[in-house]
Amino acid sequence: MKELLLPKSVFTFLKNIKKHNNRVWFNANKNTYLEQYDSVIHFADILIAKINQHDKIETPSGKKAVFRIYRDVRFSKDKSPYKTHFGLHLSRATKLLRGGYYLHIEPGKCFVGGGFWGPSPEDLKHIREQIAVDPKPLRKILKNKSFKTHFGELKGEKLVFAPKGFDKNHPAADLLKYKQFLISRFIPDSVMLNPKGMDEVVNFFRAMRPFFNYMSEILTSNTNGEPFF
Fold it and tell me: How many helices, marked H, and strands, marked E, lie in the chain?
């Protein structure tokens, strides 16, 4: 039988820490945590290698990709000291390749995601200007069968009305309202715990590429299509 790249023990640990989210339990089970953390890092290392076959990843290793399990509770009402999931983020390389891949590992809540969570005001303004000039390329991507099959629709926070400086009746007003440009897809635990689960994750990330490439192009060129770099 083919070995699982992501062992069941990772999910068992996450279920347990959700029940016992305190320092006493965690310290008593620190070795178990470190074993599961290493498993996720190993998974991330292989994932980076596979994605690098069709994209350029800046994140150098699985250890750099996997987020710490310790929560920053300074400004949170929830004082639980530990996350109940493992998250890993892979950045694309160079100024020409924008966007990043995210994998969330949590029992019953696994998902892949990507996009632009908090674009700078300058980038957001530029994205909107580019869309306003010609929304057809983005609409084509969002209506593509592969995009709709994998992700359904573009997600993210939106304004109620068209942003300041843009005509409220602009034909692309629905797209100009976005403050975030996100794509995601829920993944059943059974897929993540399947020996082929890695390939499923890679396929989802590959399906993000047309969207990422479009965003990379408009963020690295002016409204005339002339490159900045």
Answer: 10, 4
Report the pLDDT value the prediction gives residue 15, as an integer from 0 to 100: 98
How many residues are recorded in the chain? 229
Distance of CA 94 to the CA centre of its chain: 18
b/e 2-20 (16+ beta carbons within 10 angstroms → b):
eebbbbeebbebbebbeee
Identify any residues that bridge with 143 across adjacent strands, giving them in sequence order.
none
Cβ within 8 Å of residue 68, ≥6 positions away: none
| Among 191, 128, 113, 186, residue whose Cα is nearest residue 162 | 128
Return the amino acid letter for 150: H
pTM of the model: 0.92
* Tokens representing residue 206 in the block: 């590959």
Q: What b/e readout covers 102-118, taking b as 16+ CB neighbours within 10 angstroms?
A: bbbbbbeebebbbbbee
The band of 75, judged by pLDDT with boundaries at 50, 70 and 90, is confident
Taking residue 228's Cβ as centre, other Cβ atoms within 10 Å add up to 10
Distance CA 129, CA 198 (A): 37
CA distance 165 to 97: 28
Q: Are strands 111-116 and 100-105 parallel, antiparallel or unpaired?
A: antiparallel
Instruction: Write the Ramachandran bin of 165: left for phi over 0, alpha for psi from -120 to 50, otherwise beta.
Output: left
- Residues paired with 116 in a beta bridge: 181
DSSP summary character for residue 97: S
